Amino acid sequence: MEGRAGVSHSKICLAAGFSYGGEDSPPGPTEQLQRGTLCRGWHHASRLGAWYHRSHQARCTWCAKALDQSLSVKGLTLFEGRDGGDMVQRWRGLPTQPWHPWVTTTISEREEAKNYALEALQTKNAIFTDGSVVKDVKTGAALVVYREGVEVYSNFWKLSPYATITDCELLGVLEAVRWIVSTAGDEAWEIFTDSQAVLKILSSRSSTARWDKARQIYLSLSEIPGRVSLRWVPGHSSISANERADELAAKGASMREVSAETEISVRTLRRYQGEAGRLSLRKWWSDKRASLGTSVNDFFYCASHARLWIRGEVTAASSAVVFGRAPTPAHLYRCGVVNSPECDCGAPVGNTRHYLLSCPLLEQARNRVKGGVPYHLYKLIVDLKRRKSFNQLCSALMQYLDARRGLL
User: Domain RNase H type-1, which positions (predicted)?
Assistant: First the structure.
């Protein structure tokens, strides 16, 4: 992974609240991470690289800062390097060892899986787990334990806001395994999850090595080999136990305090890096547009993406609208050509936003835009699915304005 230009696909931990003497003295694998770190339970972890290569360091520090600004993650700190710059530490769990037994996973056809789950619920020891993600910020996980159809235990957790649905589902399975090991490890158990992705991760040693929770599941199950099997159950299929787990997971997501933090994947860091970049661009455009000497409309700040024009994907009519050359009544009034900025429909200000969003004279043209005209009009440019409709809408607007001026 040294020398690559991009961020690796491994899990990384932006650890907070701990430090050590120098770059050449890493902490031991049994050393506890202090409270407030973004990863927990990495007691068997091994440090695979001391520090990122410079290119890695710059990219990962960027991600960390973007994540901290957009999420205000509790306890997130960046280490200061010898040259005074910020540095980010990378951690990864050891791969599962060859002598560890395989995890038994089963994914059956939908009806077969449903019938088996209903039968196991009434006749066996069964645990149903589930995860929940609401609006990409509220995340939770839950488990419900049954003995021959009788609920004997349940619990739920709230995860960090950057957790993915796979993180939530894995936590539910991990907590189920922990409960079995600590409470009923001498019995046979079936764990049911409606996430096929989790079962596919656990069925592959290479995939398990990339997910810390999956590796912890492996290590925990190695203490009670052959006593636990994992099965897929179809979600939202009127199985009361699965619906109960889903309800508790949603309840966990609605909690105020995080009770089970998770590691951050590179994909998540990239997503928040992109979001932070877009927010920074929008703020920069809002602050600096007046000093740039340009007439580009505020809501089309992303028109700086010149490649769209270079490829010819934005027509001349669209360019006229974006760069403020559309002869709207408001524009002509500012130029002293007409005496009033009023639109022909009676609106007091006939500007570009009025025509594109609400003017009844262009209602038919707006109705042809796939998915409707978004309130934030810059999306008409960056959304590939709407670009053709955007060009047609701008063409209709320019034709109307030209006809209004008597040019057609």
Answer: 121-254
Provide the pLDDT for residue 107: 93
Amino acid identity for residue 176 in this structure: A
For residues 169, 175, 178, 182, the Cα torsion angle rounded to the nearest 10 degrees is -150
Nearest one of 219, 213, 223, 222 to 193, comparing CA atoms? 213
Residue 80 has pLDDT above 50, yes or no: no
Domains of the chain plus CATH, in order, are 1-92+265-290 (no CATH), 104-253 (3.30.420.10), 294-404 (no CATH)
Per-residue confidence band for 296, with pLDDT thresholds at 50, 70 and 90: low
Produce one character per residue of 254-281: b if its CB has 16 or more CB atoms within 10 Å, e if not. Answer: eeeebebbbbbbbebbebbbeebeeeee
State the angle between helix axes of 165-183 and 212-221 in degrees (0 to 180), rounded to the nearest 10.
20
> How many other CB atoms are found less than 10 A from the CB of residue 127?
26
**Helix locations, 254-341, DSSP H:** 266-288, 307-310, 316-322, 329-334
Question: What pLDDT sits at residue 389?
Answer: 82
Letter string b/e over residues 38-50, b meaning 16 or more CB atoms within 10 A of that residue's CB: bbeebeebeeebe
- How much is the pTM? 0.54
Name the percent of the chain lying above pLDDT 70: 66
10 Å CB burial of residue 324 (0-12, 13-18, 19+) is middle
Backbone angles phi, psi at 31, to 5 degrees: -70, 135
* Cβ–Cβ under 8 Å, residues 60 and 52: yes
What is the DSSP code string of 339-381?
Answer: S----TTS-S---HHHHHHT-GGGHHHHHTSTT---SSTTHHH
- The Cα-based distances of 369 to 60, 218, 291, 356, 373 in angstroms read 39, 51, 34, 11, 6
Q: Report which of 265, 44, 262, 235 is spatially closest to residue 171, judged by C-alpha positions.
A: 262
- Please tell me the predicted confidence (pLDDT) of residue 24: 40
Gap between the Cα atoms of 314 and 236, Å rounded: 44
Residues in the chain: 408
Q: How many CB atoms lie within 10 A of CB 10?
A: 16
User: Which of 94, 174, 101 lies closest to 141, judged by CA?
Assistant: 174
